[in-house]
Amino acid sequence: MATVKIVKKTTVKKTAKKLAAKAPARNKASNRKKRAAPTRRQAKESADLTPQLEAAARTALETCLAVKAGETVLVVTDEPKREIGMAFWRVAKAMGAEAMLAEIIPRQRNGEEPPPPIAALMAASSVVLCPTSKSLTHTAARREACAHGARMTTLPGITEDMMIRCLNADYQAIAERSHRLAAVLESGDEVHVTSPAGTDIRLRRGDRKAIANTGLYHNAGESGNLPAGETYFAPIEGSAQGVVVFEGAVAGVGKIKKPIHVVVREGMAVEITGGEEAKKFNDLIAPLGDAARNIAELGIGTNEQAQITGVILEDEKVMGTVHIALGDNKSMGGTVAVPSHLDGLIMQPTVYVDGRMIMEAGRLLVV
Predict the structure, then answer these.
(1) What is the pLDDT of residue 48?
(2) Which of 77, 165, 250, 326 fits as disulfide partner to 344, beta carbons 3.0 to 4.6 Å?
(3) Has residue 322 been placed in a domain?
């Protein structure tokens, strides 16, 4: 005879409540797994990129920095650029260098100094690479390291894609193009830049050196960016007059949708207007006083592999563009030292040196 078990309604209700309480927990666990899946996928993609990153790192270490076995090679990085920093460290170690890896807390702005112990380590090294979120180019630590003989490259904001694509450029061709452009800039004093968007600015080079950023740093004390590819100089302080319109991208802001208009008088950016991006640009400059408004640099891109990505490290190297920077120029022969150096891109520029046209609507005429 079958036995029938009577279940009270209250028991059914309690059981239903327990199941209902467990369901969200199961759903949460399932959601956690779903959220974890992209992380695993990203890890796989990162692993897939490792051989390409290391090939690009080898190009930088062998071709650009001429690293030799036994040399002390320091890689200074931060958490967002850790994978790139580790790729440089692994390759330097495999090449027989005394390879060191130092991770710092990301700086707040371009040009902010690294911690003093890192600065001391930089000055004690033969070769220094800095793939970091913010630029260490215009810092006393970088200048001191080079004064002690370090060969050095800074790679602020570099991405995996940029590293793989741009470090495989023909740096011999870039070097030749950049040196020829430097000779043209040094043939005159006044540089005049215009653009369809409204740029119309004049500034003077004086007797300051036009620097070819070739990507080849083989001698003690030499330094520059990677990816490389520009020729630049520090205008005489107080000489710049006119209007600059940034269209492509601005350091610290990224790609811009609405042009940023900068009024320049006696070498200073006295007015910055535009949309939200202009406000952000102003906010980056305002806490640092008048020195951060100094017209610090005029540069011309010479790297045919470079593209506008919103990362100024690459943007300013794009062939057919001009960039003008505000802030520190101490690192390039000027007199203004401030923990900020912000470049902005001018599109389709026409450039004259003492009245001679050297670039027309973004096309170089002299190289």
Answers:
(1) 75
(2) 250
(3) yes
pLDDT score for 148? 98
Cα 255 from Cα 250, distance rounded (Å): 7
Q: In this structure, are 248 and 325 located in the same domain?
A: yes
163 touches 53 (CB < 8 A): yes
pTM of the shown model:
0.80
Residue 255 dihedral angles phi and psi, to the nearest 5°: -60, 145
pLDDT for 40: 58
Q: What is the CATH number of the domain that holds 110?
A: 3.40.1830.10
Strand segments, DSSP code E, in 79-207 are 98-104, 127-130, 151-154, 190-194, 200-204
Q: Are residues 149 and 238 in the same domain?
A: no
* 38 lies in some domain: no
* pLDDT score for 174: 93
Is the CB of residue 52 less than 8 Å from the CB of residue 205? no
For the chain (367 residues), the mean pLDDT of every run of 10, in chain order, is 40 45 46 46 63 95 96 98 97 98 96 97 98 95 97 96 89 94 98 98 98 96 95 98 97 95 98 97 96 98 94 95 97 94 97 98 92
In a domain, 32, yes or no: no
**Can you tell me the distance from the alpha carbon of 146 to that of 128, in angstroms, rounded to the nearest whole number?**
9
Please indicate, yes or no, whether residues 186 and 114 belong to a single structural domain of this protein: no
Q: Does 341 lie in the same domain as 320?
A: yes
Same domain as 219, residue 253: yes
In 176-238, the DSSP E strands lie at 190-194, 200-204, 211-213, 223-225, 230-233
